[in-house]
Design brief:
Blueprint lengths: L3 E3 L3 E3 L5 E9 L1 H4 L9 E2 L10 H20 L8 E5 L6 H6 L6 E4 L6 H14 L5 E8 L1 H8 L15 E2 L2 E8 L6 E7 L14 H20 L8 E4 L3 H14 L8 E3 H4 L12 E2 L1 H18 L4 E5 L1 E3 L3 H5 L6 E3 L1 E5 L2
Parallel strand pairs: 3-4, 5-6, 5-7, 8-13, 11-12, 11-14
Antiparallel strand pairs: 1-2, 2-10, 3-9, 3-10, 7-9, 10-17, 14-17, 15-16
Helix pairs in contact: 6-7
């Protein structure tokens, strides 16, 4: 049986590729959250022993990729491809890190959906026989992202309560067939760009929610299943208000996900004791939550089958300055216990 294209936007893998190993890194605030103790790499400060936030993120990327390869027991030469991305202009955090690795590199920009995009492409490369092993990675850095997309931190401007906090974190996942699997990837649904006309760059949840809802509904329709097929459906980084909007949009299309619909941005921080407003966002949000919460849940038996849907807001500083709306995209993966 060959891999099948299902419906209009999905693929069912006849031989599901495995998540073989993972590694994650996080900043000080992330270490204080519910997932902090399970991080592989704990940054001591925002500079990460570098002289700029941008270099700090690049070093974080390099560290997590090196760690996932080290944990796997593989030689670096056995990794055919790295699929990685971040939020910085021209993917400099990822691209500069790759100078040290000498592994074929695909640089990706899916904004905060990048972990989903990178895992989808790595899975397709492995399942298609084009790679024995591939690494999927995504990262974000709170200080670098604020500086680029909104305002300098020194300005001290207050944010509305519906704003989310960009996670300072990085996650790397090794995908292949040969090794001890942590989970298997049985299907994917690649999202389309959806734009509901939101222009507020603080309101990431509202700008990404329509794309999240579209991908969820399209996935369920493509595979001809209902939300009850999954123990949990994890969106990427919508935060409190984006998650509620997504639920309303999904219900409008006739599905009732109920309490099984969750969001990584609501899991990575302790919102009662940490001042993160609506929750977490950034490429590192879904990456760290996947590695330190979702996959361990599949391994422990807490979950048997989940839908993982990182979400991204495809804005740039220039598009915001020109008054453009903020398109969104969301990429889904079916993850199952082995």
């Amino acid at each position: 049986m060959e891999n099948q294209h299902v419906g209009t936007q999905s693929i069912a893998f006849a031989r599901p590729p495995y998540v073989l190993e993972t590694a994650s890194a996080g900043g000080l605030l992330e270490q204080q959250g519910p997932l902090g103790k399970s991080l592989d790499i704990a940054l001591t400060d925002e500079m990460n022993h570098e002289d700029s936030w941008e270099k700090a993120e690049s070093q974080m990327v390099l560290s997590t990729i090196r760690r996932v390869i080290q944990k796997s027991g593989l030689d670096r030469a056995q990794i055919q491809y790295i699929f990685a991305g971040d939020l910085m202009n021209q993917l400099t955090a990822s691209g500069f890190a790759m100078r040290e690795l000498a592994i074929s590199f695909f640089g990706l920009y899916g904004a905060c959906s990048t972990m989903g995009e990178s895992m989808q492409l790595a899975s397709m490369a492995v399942a298609g026989g084009y790679a024995s092993y591939a690494v999927a990675e995504a990262s974000s850095h709170f200080c670098a992202a604020e500086k680029q997309f909104r305002q300098p931190l020194a300005y001290g401007g207050q944010k509305p309560l519906y704003a989310s906090r960009t996670v300072m974190g990085s996650g790397s996942v090794l995908i292949g067939y040969q090794g001890k699997p942590k989970a298997k990837i049985t299907g994917i649904t690649t999202g389309r760009v959806i734009d509901f006309g939101i222009k507020d760059s603080n309101n990431m949840g509202a700008s990404m929610a329509p794309a999240a809802a579209h991908t969820i509904c399209q996935h369920l329709n493509d595979f001809q299943v209902g939300p009850e097929e999954y123990d949990r459906i994890f969106t990427g980084d919508l935060g409190e208000y984006g998650l509620q909007l997504t639920k309303e949009l999904v219900e409008r299309d006739g599905y009732r996900p109920g309490e099984r619909l969750s969001d990584c941005g609501m899991i990575i921080y302790d919102r009662e004791n940490q001042d993160v407003h609506a929750g977490g966002s950034g490429c590192g949000c879904s990456a760290v939550t996947l590695i330190n919460y979702i996959i361990p849940g599949l391994q422990s038996g807490k979950f048997k089958k989940v839908l993982f849907i990182p979400t991204g807001a495809l804005l740039s500083p220039l598009s915001t300055q020109q008054g453009e709306s903020i398109p969104g995209v969301a990429h889904a993966l079916v993850l199952e216990a082995v």
